[in-house]
């Protein structure tokens, strides 16, 4: 389990030197050691948790939720 600030890199091509998206979930559970690096997580964690606040709720519910679904975050 990793707590923010912890970058999660998403790439459609699998190339993480220039990822398509970078997110920073409040909590990330990564079950595969292979995708963890010094810079963060290269690929979808098993679980991400976002703590909602009035200032970030819309971004968390829309932008981040859609991103996590697109890259197949399990939970």
Quick structural summary:
With about 80 residues, this protein is an alpha+beta fold. Helix content is about 20%, strand content about 25%.
Relevant terms:
about 80 residues, alpha+beta, 1 helix, globular
List the helices and strands and how they pair.
Elements (H helix, E strand, L loop, with lengths): L1 E2 L4 E3 L10 E3 L3 E3 L6 E2 L2 E3 L4 E3 L7 H14 L5
Parallel strand pairs: 2-6
Antiparallel strand pairs: 1-4, 2-3, 4-7, 5-6
Explain what the structure shows:
The mean pLDDT is 95. This protein starts with a strand and ends in a 5-residue tail after the last helix. The protein has one helix at 57-70, and strands at residues 2-3, 8-10, 21-23, 27-29, 36-37, 40-42, 47-49. Strand 5 (36-37) and strand 6 form a beta hairpin. It has one domain. It is of the alpha+beta class and 75 residues long. Strands 3-2-6-5 form a 4-stranded mixed β-sheet, with no helix packed on it. It has a 3-stranded antiparallel β-sheet with strand order 1-4-7, with no helix packed on it. It is globular.
């Amino acid at each position: 389990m990793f707590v923010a600030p912890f970058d999660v890199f998403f790439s459609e091509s699998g190339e993480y030197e220039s990822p398509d998206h970078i997110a920073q979930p409040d909590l990330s559970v990564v079950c595969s050691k292979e995708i963890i690096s010094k810079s963060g997580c290269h690929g979808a964690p098993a679980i991400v948790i976002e703590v909602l606040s009035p200032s970030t709720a819309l971004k968390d519910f829309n932008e981040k939720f859609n991103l996590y679904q697109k890259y197949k975050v399990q939970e």
